[in-house]
Amino acid sequence: MDGGSHAPVASQVRPRVRAVDGGSQDAVRPACHTAPVITLTPLTPPNAMPTHAFTAIAVSAPALDWTDLWSQVTQRAAPAEPATLTSLWPALAIVLLTLLWPRAHRWGRTLVTVVHEAGHAAVGLLVGRRFLGFVVSKDLSGHAVTSGKPRGLGRTLTTWAGYPAPALLGAVVVAAALRGWSGVVLSLGLVTLLVLLVMSRSLHTVSVVLAVGSLTAALWWLGGTWRAGVLVGVGLVLLVGAWGSLGDVARSADPHQDNGTLARLTHLPGWFWLGTWFLADGAATAWVVWLTRGLVA
User: Fold this and answer.
1) CA 243-246-251 angle, 5° bins
2) Mean pLDDT in each 10-residue stretch from start to end of the chain (297 residues)?
3) Distance CA 297, CA 295 (A)
4) How many other CB atoms sit within 10 Å of the CB of residue 296?
5) Bridging pattern class, strands 142-147 and 24-26
6) What is the pTM of this model?
7) CA dist 117 → 61, 124, 163, 250 (Å)
8) For residue 276, with 0-12 CB atoms within 10 Å meaning exposed, 13-18 middle and 19 or more buried, which class applies?
9) Of 248, 270, 239, 244, residue with least CA distance to 165
10) How far apart are CA 229 and CA 235, in angstroms?
């Protein structure tokens, strides 16, 4: 404790070991310094996950049952029992709403315009013309564009098909719904609307087709005995709307209406083509009346 400094002295560890002959002796062994063991661990990114974690996720994820999905689809598209009078109350509600509420009336006329233009397109494709697109305007007018020969039977039939299309389709929808084929009608309608969506040539037309398609898909998926009544109501709206649009064109003096175009294509007067449309709408209406009378009886 003199406060001086002493140089460190290396010491040797002299462990005492027992001799073979039973005595003891001091064994001098050199000092051993054990080197530190360094373990290298690979760096893992913060967002990385161990392989077993991915395996666990893959195993725990539920598998999509395509068989069950297909069963659900076919079940909704399959024919059902014919409609009864008590299941048709939605039809009466839809028709009254369309006749009494101006906004619903406008929706119904918009649907009539869509079917009108789809009628031009469908017949044009059947006669070998090419369907290029269609437009539904906010003023309830519209036009479909097909390409092909500028004159001839194909062009005439394509031009004629627009005005009777809503009445004829409405009658077919009513007949199919009453016989239990609502699922089939809705399935075909969804496919048709998908094609029309692709062929829409304005934002307003796209919005209209999307709205109609969404309602159709909801009705198809929800099912229920009441959807036959909804389809009968839609068919009647198309039938009534067809008469309304036919009255509009009969009062119009516009030479570019379809009857004026047919007059230029065939040299037959426009009133002749108006008469053929009245006959077509009348036949569709008579068919629906006959169907409903049979239902009541």
Assistant:
1) 125
2) 44 42 42 47 49 47 67 74 86 96 96 98 97 96 95 97 98 95 94 97 97 95 87 97 96 93 96 97 96 76
3) 5
4) 6
5) unpaired
6) 0.76
7) 47, 11, 9, 18
8) middle
9) 239
10) 10
